[in-house]
Design a protein that fits this description.
Elements (H helix, E strand, L loop, with lengths): L1 E9 L5 H14 L3 E7 L2 E8 L1 H12 L8 E7 L7 E5 L19 E3 L1 H8 L4 E5 L3 H4 L2 E3 L13 H7 L4 H6 L1 E5 L4 H12 L4 E5 L2 H8 L7 E3 L1 E2 L6 E2 L9 E2 L6 E2 L1 H4 L19 H19 L14
Parallel strand pairs: 2-5, 6-10, 7-9, 9-10
Antiparallel strand pairs: 1-3, 1-4, 2-3, 8-11, 12-13, 14-15
């Protein structure tokens, strides 16, 4: 069994390149897999390993200046959900496309998972799911608004399209959530920058909510997409029922896989018609190499589809 830790914190990093080197060296020593993004605004990532090594790795991260209280969400996986360790430098650890948006300067109010249900039951609250459309499609909080974005950078465009008045910005109570808390925290900073006064975001995101709130009391409907080989998790944080199309990287069901347009590692009903013959040929070649590696009990890096979340 592998331990999986999703983590992030907005905290100023003076020298991201030096921090990158320190993290890579320390985490490799503890046989850690996964991805960590490092930028001037903080750290963001998901890592995996055996439980003892994960705890040692987290201690290494917490030893960095400003990260002693970094937010961490734990789950488990029967197989290692990552193929290798990647520590990357980024201008933004989660990209909204506006350097003026800085949660280290201003952000909305944290809401603990234990208090989240009471907040979103309020009929006057505008509840926004700031994740991508394909993530929302497999699960969300009841009555949440889906902005139908393709990437997080689309969120400001959606806000602009709503034509909120100055009165709305003063009176409307806005609550936002995402997978691990980082996108909704940055989105809350954007909303505050736009003049919204009453802004809230779910501390630790959906994963911390799953970890903290009894499923019988949950207001969540469906599963939660995660950016690793598990594809999705259920409320008890066990591996979900979705697979992934390696052509478009969208979650797919068993029904999707029964379609004539589903080709393993190549396409699904959602992307079959948009893929060129050349793309399908390249994906088929990649899948063949993945299968051959599996027969040799090796891992093929072409199968690694972890994304920034």
């Amino acid at each position: 069994m592998y331990s999986v830790a999703a983590l992030y914190k907005f905290s100023p990093v003076v020298d991201p390149a030096s921090t990158q080197n320190i993290l890579k060296k320390r985490l490799l020593n503890h046989q850690i897999h996964g991805t960590i993004l490092v930028g001037h605004e903080g750290l963001n990532g998901t890592i995996s390993g055996d439980e003892a090594n994960i705890l040692l790795a987290l201690n290494c991260i917490k030893d960095l200046d400003g990260f002693a209280d970094i937010d961490v969400k734990f789950s488990e996986s029967q197989e290692n959900p990552f193929l290798r360790l990647k520590v990357k430098l980024k201008d933004e650890i989660v990209t909204i496309g506006n350097p003026e948006i800085n949660p280290n300067i201003q952000a909305g109010n944290y809401v603990n998972p234990s208090e989240w249900n009471n907040l979103i039951k309020d009929e006057d609250v505008l509840l926004i799911d700031v994740r991508n459309n394909y993530e929302c499609s497999i699960g969300s909080f009841k009555n949440a608004v889906n902005p139908k974005t393709n990437i997080f950078q689309d969120f400001p465009k959606w806000v602009d399209s709503q034509s909120f008045s100055d009165a709305d910005k003063k009176s409307k109570k806005v609550a936002m959530f995402c997978t691990g808390g980082i996108r909704c925290e940055k989105a809350s900073s954007y909303m505050k920058n736009e003049g919204f006064e009453d802004v809230y975001h779910l501390k630790g995101g959906i994963l911390k909510y799953f970890e903290s709130v009894n499923e019988k009391e949950s207001l969540w409907d469906g599963e939660c997409f995660v950016f690793d080989d598990r594809v999705s998790v259920k409320h008890d944080l066990s591996v979900g029922s979705y697979d992934m199309c390696h052509g478009c990287r969208f979650p797919i069901t068993d029904l999707d896989k029964s379609s004539d347009k589903y080709q393993r590692g190549i396409s699904c009903p959602g992307c079959f018609d948009s893929k060129t013959d050349d793309q399908k040929s390249r994906y088929a070649s990649r899948q063949l190499q993945v299968d051959l590696s599996k027969e040799r009990n090796e891992k093929h890096l072409g199968a690694d589809f972890a994304k920034e979340n």
